[in-house]
Amino acid sequence: MKRQLKLVLGNRKLMFQIFFTLFIISIVCLGTSWPLPFINTKSLDLSKLYGFFPINAGTLFGLGITPYITASIVVQFLQKLLPICREWKDQGQMGKRKLNLLTRSLALLFAFGQSFAFLNSYSKLFVTSISTSQLFLLALIATAGVAILIWFADLINSKGIGNGTSILIVVSMSHSLINLFVNLNESYLSQNNFLTLKTFNFACIVLLLLLFLIFTLVVQITSLKIPINYARNQVQGKSYIPLKINSAGVMPVILASALLQPFQMLAGVIGNTKFTEVVDFFAKTTNFPENQINFFAIGFLVLLVIVFSFFSAFMNVNPEDISEHLSKQDAYIAGLRPGEQTTRYLANTLFKITVLGTVFIAALVVTPILVEHFLGLKDMKLGGTSLLIIVSVALETIQRIEATANKKEYQKLF
Q: 110 and 201: one domain?
């Protein structure tokens, strides 16, 4: 531990990357609490809306980077559906730039639609009534905030440390967890409730979050190691292919939430119509004030998580590419022929361990909803999925810091 810390502190470039990333995060935190014109700051609590991402479109960076994630999902599907997008995918760097431009354009379009829908739905946010042109201007400002966040993510990728998009998501998630503990303190510990049922509920919630944290850490670092052999024995020691239990990472939760949010916001604009009822039926897991659980919505959410888990797992880990790489390195898995047999074995193994990872993610999604219902936590959102995202991104960032620090140490040897 001391050696790793010494390597990090002794690497000027790495320290600059860390401080640069922290500087960007501090700017994002300021922008997230900076209200837009005409907004009543006392009413901003009304804007804690849908899904796992805390949306607060009454502030400059309130939308977060969610529109960019939604646009990325759309572009990924377009690559499967539209021939021109498939051509761009195969055009190398030029095609990548075209796809990035399409993603960013769609992100700004989604950002404008979400911000306009949000602000139009919540008239209580404004100090006075505003005109349509003023509402249009506020939506443009919120859209500009999303554009700035996308730029910040690129800056972190190029000059900072870690994945810029993931880090900005974690910033939003951290706000929601902080709000959770503040609300818990106000509800349970601020009214002399020692040794009462409320104190017991508070202890249960904190214990549940700690268990989530420990279990998330274990799952994120656990992997199945498939041993590989080399035909010429050119590699000393044991080599293996690590397949994580949760190969999908945090993407299933992010994708499911990003898919539902636009429909929920659109329903808020349309109002009391059949469309709103349909959206609530599919997306509103708990119906307040009746405090009834919508099991169909929970089931639909779990279904989305399952679909995106397998989709993300096989996007992150391509058995065919691994098999091809093994063949080029004259490597093989014991008892299997290189090529199709190896690919099929890797695909089957990945499918089996992804089932375990999917059960874990589904439990993180469903358990907080049930706890909120049975403990009557109407104004709080437990952070099971938030913990998953924060822990995953934290582990990824720590691994990058260690890799960068060790890289300089290895360079000194040659």
A: no
User: What separation, in Å, do the N-terminal and C-terminal C-alpha atoms of the chain show?
Assistant: 24
Q: Which pLDDT belongs to residue 25? A: 92
pTM score: 0.76
Residues of the chain with pLDDT under 50: 46-53, 288-289, 413-414
- For residue 275, give both structure tokens: 């469309």
Q: What digits encode the pLDDT tens for the residues 201-236?
A: 677 777 877 887 788 888 888 888 888 888 766 555
Domain limits for position 111: 1-173
**Domain with 94 in it: what CATH number?**
1.10.3370.10
Q: Which residues pair with 292 in a beta bridge?
A: 287
Alpha-carbon distance of 392 to 75, in angstroms, equals: 24
240 torsion bin: left (phi>0), alpha (psi -120 to 50), beta (else):
beta
| SS3 call for 37 | coil
Q: What is the full DSSP assignment across 87-114?
A: HHHTSTHHHHHHHHHHHHHHHHHHHHHH
